[in-house]
Design goal:
Blueprint lengths: L6 H16 L5 E2 L5 E2 L51 H16 L15 E2 L5 E5 L4 H6 L6 H12 L8 E4 L13 H18 L3 E5 L1 H8 L5 H4 L4 E3 L2 E6 L2 H6 L3 H18 L8
Parallel strand pairs: 4-5, 4-6, 6-8
Antiparallel strand pairs: 1-2, 3-5, 7-8
Length: 279
């Protein structure tokens, strides 16, 4: 008969399990006991990847912000995009073209940045939504293209899925001017296109990644630590907020990994996906 596991043994076993599920191979521990992922943190470049910043006195000074002047009235999405006689992929492509054409009439200085619309299965039952594209996403023309994107792929794989099985996008399709934080006014103008994406794809569940995206979509003043793990709704679709993959990279603690994995398991249950067998 095997000996009963001690609390420390159970914690170690859970750490191994979440490491395997979320794709964490190695954690470095500094002399002061702080956990750190291997590799230069400066490699995280994109806005969707939420770049790591050095905590220095200069970090608290805010750079000058470029304003975005909203012109005209918020966009109205034509009903033709919701004609179910047309394939979903075709309607998404037409919606992307419509967004690209109309944006110059809405935001006078955003078109300097390329649009990153979204990618994946147009009939997906699961949709992931971040905040906005960044430099890496702009360079590659796809959402979550940096290190955080690799981590997101690992999270998706932990659920028994592949990136091609889901749909991935951002609440905003353009990087805000000056790479500034997104604002509710941005979503007032870009939100109708996200709503249209959701209406066309008709996912069963949405996972929102990170606090900024969760606040934009839910219109909540609460932070991600208060929102995560609690079911919400967006346009009649079940929605689960969780930590951004970049936060998982910056804080690869047992607690954070466990929280993310718990959130993903709740999503799997809602979708009817099989949970990994307990070892």
């Amino acid at each position: 008969m095997s000996e009963e596991r001690q609390p420390s043994d159970r914690a170690a076993l859970m750490a191994v399990r979440t490491d395997a599920m979320l794709g964490i191979d190695l954690i470095l521990v500094t002399d002061d006991g702080a956990a750190q992922m291997p590799g230069d943190s400066s490699e995280i470049q994109s806005r969707s990847s939420e770049p790591v910043r050095a905590f220095t006195a200069q970090s608290h000074s805010k750079p000058p912000r470029e304003s975005t002047r909203h012109v005209g009235t918020p966009p109205v999405i034509p009903d033709s995009f919701f004609d179910e006689h047309e394939p979903q992929a075709s309607r998404l492509s037409n919606l992307q073209d419509h967004h690209a054409r109309s944006c110059s009439n809405l935001l006078d200085n955003v078109p300097d940045h390329p649009m990153v619309f979204g990618e994946g299965d147009s009939n997906a039952s699961l949709m992931f939504i971040g905040e906005a594209p960044g430099t890496e996403e702009e360079r590659h023309g796809r959402p979550f293209a940096g290190r955080a994107g690799v981590k997101l792929d690992e999270m998706i794989k932990a659920m028994g899925l592949q990136r091609e099985d889901v749909y991935i996008t951002n609440a905003l399709k353009f990087r805000p001017p000056g790479n500034r934080p997104s604002e509710p006014g941005d979503f007032e103008w870009c939100g109708p296109y996200l709503a249209a994406q959701v209406r066309i794809i008709r996912p069963d569940v949405i996972v929102v990644l990170g606090g900024p995206a969760s606040k934009l979509i839910l219109g909540s003043p609460l932070g991600i630590t208060s929102l995560r793990g609690k079911w919400a709704s967006y346009n009649d679709v079940d929605l689960m907020p969780t930590f951004h993959p970049a936060y998982l990279l910056r804080n690869p603690t047992l607690e954070v990994r466990g929280q993310v994995w718990k959130d993903l398991q709740e999503v799997m249950k809602r979708l009817g996906l099989p949970l990994p067998a307990r070892g």
